[in-house]
Hotdog fold domain-containing protein
Amino acid sequence: MTTAALQTVLTVPQRFRGPEGVANGGWIAGTMAEALNGGRSAVEVTLHAPTPLETELRLEHVANSVSLSRGDDLLVEAIPVAEDLKGPGFVSFNDAARAEAGFAGLKAHPFAECFACGLREPGDGLRIFPGPVPGSDLVAAGWRVPFTVAGEDGVPASIIGAVLDCITGWAHFGPGESALLGRLAVQIHGQVHPGGRYSVVARPTGRDGRKMYGESGIYEVDGTLVAAGRATWIAPR
């Protein structure tokens, strides 16, 4: 017996770019998590190839997975994982906002147009600028959620995925350094509200050759974990 696949078309708008010419990996991961199970339980998203912008792509549900393809080329695959993502630890909003002054991307940014961590105009990009938290291995930023990223049902999983993504890279990067997201697990524990203030926190969890690992979290001002991520980055050769 075969399982019929449910197919829809996905087009990534130019606004949600990461590196030049391709989609932000976290935005894609959040979109895939939403498509699989709403992101309420953990979803692991593997990026096999860069996702092009403004291009009709095939989003396909088969059994307990979701894939994104362009023609015969598999771009992204999402599967559920049987665990809860815990997050790296809470940093207060004021301390997270102060840490932004140390954001390495302010000195040299490899992807200045990135939707999540780039230097775009407020309200267009998210402007998540994580800097080191004194006395810890954490990086953090204060996120003041723009109304321009909210839909009818609040802030969507795609935006939450983008927030959880880049900060795990900046837990490793110095000025001008970069890598590409290879895998991001996402779990959404609660709602993110437009106009709200949240701490976005990450820490590095290891390195193996060209692979860099990190975990991230979005926290309410009282320390409640709203969403968590776990990332694998791959540095250039």
In short: Residues 93-234 form a domain with the Thiol Ester Dehydrase; Chain A fold (CATH 3.10.129.10). The helical segments are 25-37, 93-99, 157-170. The two ends are 44 Å apart (CA to CA). The CA atoms of residues 46 and 183 lie 4 Å apart.
